[in-house]
Amino acid sequence: MKILITGGAGYIGNELVFELLKDSTVSEIIIYDNLSRKNFNLFLDTRNEPRKVRFIHGELLDSRKLRQVLQGVDVVYHLAAKVSTPLATENAHLFEQINHWGTAELVYAIEESDVKQVVYVSTTSVYGASEEMTDIDTPPDPRTFYGSSKLRGEAHVERLMDNRKVWIIRSGNVYGYSPSVRFDAVINRFMFEANFIGRIQITGNGKQQRAFVHVHKLVNMLANLLRHELPSGTYNFSEHNLSIEYIAGVIKEIYPALDMIFVNQHLVMREIKILPDHRILPLITTEPVCFKDELIQFKEKFSFASK
After folding, report:
1. 265 to each of 70, 128, 245, 268, how far by Cα in Å?
2. 68 lies in a domain?
3. Domain count for the chain
4. How far apart are CA 120 and CA 237, in angstroms?
5. Is residue 38 one of the residues assigned to a domain?
6. What is the pTM of this model?
7. Which of 26, 141, 163, 275 is a Cys-bridge partner for 128, taking CB atoms 3.0 to 4.6 Å apart?
8. How many Å apart are CA 66 and CA 101, to the nearest integer?
9. Which residues, 6 or more positions from 242, have their beta carbon under 8 angstroms from its beta carbon?
10. % of the chain exceeding 70 in pLDDT
């Protein structure tokens, strides 16, 4: 089985490559990435198998190169995207170019290929914001350029469902250690600041809740899609609905000397709570780990502490 991962050098992509390499039926993994985040840690990850992994530097809008790369590919994981944190409401054109039209170009190329399975990692940001619990039947109502562009990308991917296995996965906010970890994501950023600065800053009163999923559980589920008979469709995937205040409290248990600064406590911050999608939960085969223990494991990955 030959697999293409767009955005494979990124945070999720790095871990997905390693997870897929555990499958003996995978003959080759092609990482297609423009390295726009300047994160090269994937290339130093000793868990990879050189004979099975290949890197191609390329853009989603490069139609000719996409068609060449897709030759002989069986499965496509589409992870490449302009991500939002923390500027989801700025530079609409860039979000549209990459997340919307870049996805469109990839879909056009797949339509002319022999690809059999497609996985598109979308986001729960397509639902916008709500104080009510959100589930898969909640109509999307994105409030950011990032959410809107990912929803438009979904519309292109849906066309492939007529004659291929296609899964659209609306993921919660991803956290947890990886060699290519994103420290702009809130939990990861808090952990970095707690370990090296001894202080975290919370905007608003901290009571806003968001949906979160650990990176290892996400890639475990994504890899298991290839081994389960889950019907084509759109699915939500998240583990926890956590308030920023609660996250900060757990981190303070790990770092007792931590200082917490609240800024603009009068502001009501956007929140989104996601009801677990029970259709997809059976695909998780990792051992259960509580949230605090996940953060302790993250702490143990730091090479030193400043406090």
Report:
1. 50, 22, 12, 8
2. yes
3. 1
4. 12
5. yes
6. 0.94
7. 141
8. 14
9. 209, 210, 212, 291
10. 97
